[in-house]
Structure formats: structure tokens, C-alpha cells
Write a structure and sequence with these properties.
Elements lengths: L1 E5 L20 E3 H8 L5 H12 L21 H9 L3 E6 L2 E5 L13 E4 L2 E5 L2 H11 L5 E6 L5 E3 L7 E7 L6 E6 L1 H12 L3 E3 L2
Parallel strand pairs: 2-11
Antiparallel strand pairs: 1-6, 1-7, 3-6, 4-5, 5-9, 7-8, 9-10
Helix pairs in contact: 2-3
């Protein structure tokens, strides 16, 4: 599992969630799961499911029990291509810089404010694909990544133990609000849920 955020000035929100960014593991009856996702037996069939989800043509995935938000439509094509390459995306947000807090798509918080978010992507990937990707990522000092495997081995290119804010807002008379952050300790804890077997009830 890996997460990547871009610290250059291309920001925007996808999820208005509390610290840290998180998903809800789907709990679904077996017969409903088969009806929704079928019985994929090849990696291509799995990537097709993820691509379908990106285009809002699928209501949920095992790692997310709700459909993508409407604002994801601006990066849906890019996400689908990423999944087609073998990077199975489970959380993401497009990038917007200084959107008014009353914006119908990206706004949040009190009125007369401005909101920001870094481009963010969380995904599953094979070690081989990941090594190739990291080679490219490390050429850009503006990109921060965290990678963890099932054993709990963590890799990152940041030397800071502090949180990396990926969502924040500036509002009149208030300190900067940072409702969504990414940090190693929470990422490692969340790995336990994401890498565990999705919960399917029934026989």
C-alpha cells in the first residue's frame, strides 16, 4: 500500500474527513458482493472494477462502502488510467488552490474563507511496479510518499515525523484549520485495516 501527496501549489479537497484520511471497509453479504462485483479471477478483471468505480458506474468497492464524490469527476479519467496500469486506487483528491469556502463543489467551513488541498493518491501496487514508480517520484522533491507492506515495513522520503497537512482552510478571525493530515504513525495503523481481508458476511 502506498500514499503519495504533492506539495507544490496544486490543491483541492476530495474528502472532508477527520485526521487522518481514511476509508470505510465495506461489510456486505456474500450474495450482494457477487451481484455487485461478480467473481473476478484475473488481475485485469480487478483493475476493470476499479476503473468502473472511478467513473461512478459502481457504487462501492471492498475498501470503500460509498460511491466516489462528484468532485472526483475532474480526475476520473486520470484515475482510471492509473488503475489500468496496475495501481489500484482506494483514496484520492484532485488539486485546487485557494477555492472560496462557499464553492459548491470544493468549499467547506465558515463563509468568506479559502480552502486548499494537496493532490493526494492512495493505492495498492505490486513491489515491482512500486519500485519503478518510486524511481520517478524521487526526481521531484515536491512529492512526499509513504509505502508499507503486509509485514509492516515502512518506506518514505520524508525525514519529518510530524504530520503533513493535505487539507487546510483560512477563515476570518481563525487560525489555519487543518482537518486532514497524513503521517507515518496513522498510515501504519490504517494499513492493518486496508491489507486485511475485506469483510464479506454469509457462506
Amino acid at each position: 500500500m502506498a500514499t503519495v501527496s504533492h506539495s507544490k501549489k496544486r490543491y483541492s479537497p476530495l474528502a472532508r474527513c477527520s485526521t487522518p484520511i481514511h476509508l470505510t471497509i465495506s461489510t456486505i453479504q456474500k450474495e450482494d458482493a457477487v451481484k455487485l462485483w461478480g467473481r473476478p479471477t484475473t488481475f485485469k478483471e480487478i483493475t476493470d472494477l476499479f476503473q468502473t468505480f472511478c467513473f461512478s458506474q459502481l457504487s462501492s468497492l471492498p475498501w470503500s462502502d460509498q460511491p466516489v464524490l462528484s468532485e472526483t469527476s475532474i480526475i476520473a479519467g486520470q484515475l482510471a488510467r492509473v488503475n489500468a496500469l496496475g495501481f489500484l486506487t482506494i483514496n484520492s483528491q484532485p488539486a485546487v488552490n485557494g477555492v472560496r469556502s462557499d464553492d459548491k463543489t470544493f468549499g467547506w467551513g465558515p463563509s468568506n474563507g479559502y480552502v486548499y488541498q494537496k493532490a493526494y493518491l492512495e493505492f495498492f501496487a505490486s513491489p515491482m511496479l512500486l519500485d519503478s514508480l518510486i524511481t520517478h517520484i524521487e526526481r521531484d522533491p515536491g512529492i512526499i510518499y509513504y509505502v508499507i507492506n503486509k509485514r509492516g515495513d515502512l518506506r518514505t522520503n520524508t525525514t519529518s515525523d510530524g504530520p503533513n497537512a493535505v487539507t487546510w482552510g483560512v477563515f476570518p478571525g481563525k487560525e489555519v484549520v487543518q482537518p486532514t493530515i497524513v503521517e507515518a504513525i496513522s498510515f501504519m495503523a490504517w494499513k492493518v485495516f486496508l491489507i486485511s481481508q475485506p469483510q464479506v458476511s454469509g457462506h
